Amino acid sequence: EATIKKDLPLLNINVLITAGPTFEAIDPVRFIGNRSSGKMGFAIADRMYNLGANVTLVAGPTHEVCSTGINRINVMSAEDMHQACIANFQEALITIMSAAVADYTPVHVAKQKIKKSDTDLSIALKRTTDILADLGSKKRPGQLLIGFALETENEEENAVSKLKRKHLDLIVLNSLNDPGAGFQGDTNKITIFNQQLQKKTFDTKSKAEVAIDICQEILGLL
Ligand code: CTP
Ligand code: CA
To answer: Looking at ligand 1, which residue's alpha carbon is closest to its atom 4?
Structure first.
């Protein structure tokens, strides 16, 4: 039993994870999306599962596959993702939001395919809900909330401001300026800040190894 506890430190702990992009429909055949592969979030989900957690993975459209023991909820839009997160947040001790959620979505979704005309086209966009900020405002004492920040300039300053504004316990900074970091590759380079604004930098590693580091930092908060 002692070994089980040591190997599975998150046994019976509910963990909620978001991963992948969201797609915001423009018409029946078109959408606004982004280049997120979902790999980082899926690697974290697998790691959490291997640590014994009950994992709910809210996944945007991605080709990634996860362990069959993970409760995967597939969603398309930011709005869908928000609903799935709200439904699962209360019971989660640990929530990790790695999804690349669209910040804007079309005001109207055309019922029919939009036909081209000779004039240029503009599409009106409205803000989506910031899911992470919403969960941050609903967080109970003891719940842990971890966010990501994807930055191309003023990386650390922007990441710290997101940590504070969204009431996070940790923020994982991905700088797109780092070679080997980012969205689509198999490696990542991260920096993690905690609420005391202590900073930990990590080397470029495979996303599976980065997931181990992130989960280790989270375990350290428990
Ligand atoms: N996030 C979210 N819901 C949104 C937008 C972002 O849950 N509608 C989460 C992401 O999953 C990530 C964190 O917020 O964990 C930061 O996302 P990011 O795009 O880096 O920051 P934003 O707050 O959206 O600000 P900006 O894109 O302007 O830098
Ligand atoms: Ca954003």
So the answer is: 130
- Lining ligand 1 with CB less than 6 A are 18, 78, 97, 99, 101, 103, 128, 130-132, 147-150, 162
Q: How far, in Å, is the centroid of ligand 2 from the Cα of 57?
A: 20
Report the Cα–Cα distance between both ends of the chain, in Å, rounded: 20
DSSP secondary-structure letter at 140?
A: P
Kindly list the structural domains of the chain, giving each domain's residue range(s) and its CATH number in brackets, ordered by start.
2-110+121-219 (3.40.50.10300)
* Alpha-carbon torsion, ordered 79, 81, 86, 90, to 10 deg: -170
ipTM at complex level: 0.99
3-state class (DSSP) for residue 43: helix
Q: How many residues does the chain have?
A: 222
| pTM of the predicted protein model | 0.96
The closest-lying atom of ligand 1 relative to the alpha carbon of residue 134 is 7
Determine if residue 126 is labeled as part of a ligand binding site: no
Question: Which residues are identified as catalytic?
Answer: 34
Rg (Cα) of the chain, in Å, rounded?
18
pLDDT in tens, 72-93: 999 999 999 999 999 999 999 9
Q: Angle at CA 145, nearest 5°, toward 143 and 146? A: 150
